[in-house]
Amino acid sequence: MTMTASTAVPWHRPRGAEHPYANSADQLDPIVPVAGQPLRIGAVHPGTSRLELELRWSDATLPPLREPLTKVSQGNADSVALAGGDGHLEEAQAASLSTETAWTISLPALPEAAGEYRFVADDRASDWFELRPARWLPGGDDAVAGAGAKLVPGSVELLTPVGGAPVRARFVLALQPGDHLVGFGERFDAIDQAGRRFDSVVFEQYKSQGEFGRTYLPMPFAHVISADGSSWGFHVRTSRRVWFDAAASRPDQLLVEVELGAEAQVSVGLYDGSPTQVLTTFLNEVGRAAEQPDWVLRLWASSNEWNTQAIVTEQVARHHAEQIPLGVVVIEAWSDEQGFVVWRDSAYTPRTDGSVHSASDFTYPADGAWPDPAGMIADLHDQDIKLVLWQIPLLGHAETELTAETAAEVAYLAERGLAVREADGSPYRNRGWWFPKALMPDFTNPEARRWWQDRHRWLVRDLGVDGFKTDGGEHAWGADLRYADGRTGAENNNRYPVEYAAAFGELLESEGAAPITFSRAGYTGSQAHGLYWAGDENSTWTAFRHSLNAGITAAACGIVYWGWDIAGFSGPLPDPELYLRATAVSAFLPIMQYHSEFNHHRRPLRDRTPWNVGEAFGDEQVLPIFRSYAQLRERLVDYLARSARTAVRTDRPLLRGLFFDWPDDPQLWAHPHQFLCGDDLLVSPVTESGATEWTTWLPAGDWVDVWTGERLSGSAPVTRPVPLDVVPVYARAQAWPELAAVFGH
Fold first, then answer.
1. C-alpha–C-alpha distance, residues 154 and 141, integer Å
2. Residue 605 to residue 26: CA distance in whole angstroms
3. Number of other residues whose CB lies within 10 A of the CB of residue 553
4. Contact 639, 739 (CB under 8 A)
5. Which domain of life is it from (predicted)?
6. What is residue 648's DSSP assignment?
7. What pLDDT score does 410 carry?
8. Which burial class, exposed, middle or buried, applies to 226 when counting CB atoms under 10 A from its CB (0-12, 13-18, 19+)?
9. Residue segments in the chain with a per-residue pLDDT below the cut of 70
10. Which residue segments constitute the domains of the chain, with CATH numbers given?
């Protein structure tokens, strides 16, 4: 927004930018005003020395109001506070959250009456805006369908504006004190969410997800596991925002609050049985993972610094020279980062009519970044290495000059109605801080979906690209956005990353390839679409623990193929101890991969390759220990592939929290990061710096220490030394004869 003092009309949006966790300077707070409670109203106007709020009520007995607002000299401090951390994206985030001159006023307790308000500055006034305070009114138990005996009688309430229909419902499901609640999608802050408050909204929290309690991949589904080992589960069947008070206010209650649309009823699925039975019933409703090819279980490697063919070739050769088996290379910084279909530095005739490319359209200068993409990909394939290319579901970028082709594509998307739209029909432009004001293709529109797929088709058909890293997907902000299938943003924004990954999976399958998508964002239904990683994280011990939480909780919701950036991707290099502890654990995760963010090739390099970490710290043990785990991973592929097939067939997670198998063992909750890798390997991550010994709780059964071959009895703690080359891993005794050779016995 660009305004001058002499011409500007005061600017206000009742819902603001609809950032889910921070207020815009120009919005209501809360967005749904509540009768009897205070309301903050914000506006933006530059230059003027006085801005006034004019408020009038439909009830003639209530006096009108005309009061000055207070200038907020620091701008939108609430939003700016969210822009932190270290990394190449921090400045972009901070800049996007700043505002022009802001004004605010706080009103005391609102009356239960409809009204309207506007802003006046000098001789300029805004439009009138409707104000309808709401109240929580009793609702009948029939407003929550499917909750059965778990619904606390009389707990249903409906948030109802004056003269309007309900906009939210809240209700209580009964718990037993001491119940554990696991799931809710990918959760970073804890595995057991009992005692916490949180919501389910797809959000790009740039790092520190665990500290903020936010996630890229939420689901309103969870397991409830009681102290006696009994269990059940529930699913709030909605794609709208849901808030949970998970035994935080009362240990015997789960308070659920749900946004409503035209529907007046909330649907809840209740599932009885063991955790596996609960998960099966849930996945029968929402879809489950398909088996992926075995190569996804090998080592993945990438860095945003690998932004030329020469660097990629060099790094691949170094893996070979160091005897580190490599299965997948991900190239992120390959395109012009405008349309994500053109290799940087290539020469071509722009297509400005909406038609799509083939490989013959491009030539590549010998001194360019990518002199021969087809040859590079063929060479990777000759070495039994697959290639995955980075993507983002945005087109155009407000901070760069668009190429002729991208400008034409932006116009094509807008003119043909193929983009997500605002309520007035205009194209939605990304309100987030990353690729600001770019357009988003509407994947619910069949024409848009086909066009987006066809733009990328040549990469698969002509070049042999094996998959796409479907990054992003969290950019739809706004309850009033419009999608081609008739849904609003409130209904479909959470579903956007599901459709985005599905569209790329369909493209790959249509060309005879496996549907390899590697996503960080998702929602209910994402189970059926590819692979996932934990998104942007720091290289810290805290982030290590939080990422393990994320993997175990995502798996409990049916995500089979999951990994993270070994020891984090952002900021200074992890020290050797953290790096090797993280590597050891990653060898037993469904996806083993390392990655690092762009740092302008400044020294010391921030590549998370073992040789770079070892050289940066002068530590000669890093490379050989990493090599040993990479080689172990290669030997584990057959076991992992069998286990993945079992997971898909039986819904017993590949990465499995121990409560799935021993729900009646209370000791497990004191060791939350232990997990099963398939049915037969129990992994006990070392998650604290300086550890020389580590205690694992072995659940019931007979076990074998895979490093020593020692046989152990379960239902007991076991403590063993943990030098940097050892992560405690125990095999089920009955499986040991088959697994012994994998571990060198």
1. 7
2. 42
3. 28
4. yes
5. Bacteria
6. H
7. 95
8. middle
9. 1-7, 73-100
10. 28-132 (2.60.40), 135-286 (2.60.40.1760), 294-645 (3.20.20.80), 655-743 (2.60.40.1180)
Query: 377: alpha, beta or left, given left = phi > 0 and alpha = psi -120 to 50?
Result: alpha
Beta carbons of 559 and 532 less than 8 angstroms apart: yes
Quick one: 670 exposed, middle or buried, by C-beta within 10 A (0-12, 13-18, 19+)?
exposed
DSSP letter, residue 662: -
474 a catalytic residue: yes
| pLDDT value of position 88 | 53
What is the distance in angstroms between the CA of the first residue and the CA of the last residue of the chain? 67
At 600, list the tokens: 């302008």
Tell me, what's the pLDDT at 5? 45
Which two tokens mark 301? 């490697």
Residue with tokens 């970044």: 369
Bridge partners, residue 592, by sequence: 299, 564
pLDDT recorded at residue 89: 57
Q: In what order do the strands lie in the sheet with 253-259?
A: 134-138, 157-161, 168-174, 253-259, 242-246, 196-199
Catalytic residue among 536, 597, 661, 705: 536
Distances (CA, A) of 238 to 261, 268, 433, 669: 10, 9, 27, 30
Nearest residue to 257 via CA among 132, 130, 133, 143? 143
**Does the annotation mark 536 as catalytic?**
yes
Residues in the chain: 745
Which of the residues 18, 199, 332, 474 is marked catalytic?
474
Q: Is 95 strand, coil or helix?
A: helix
Residues 587, 601: contact at Cβ < 8 Å? no
* 409 given a catalytic annotation: no
Angle in degrees, 0-180, between the axes of helices 622-650 and 610-617, rounded to the nearest 10:
140
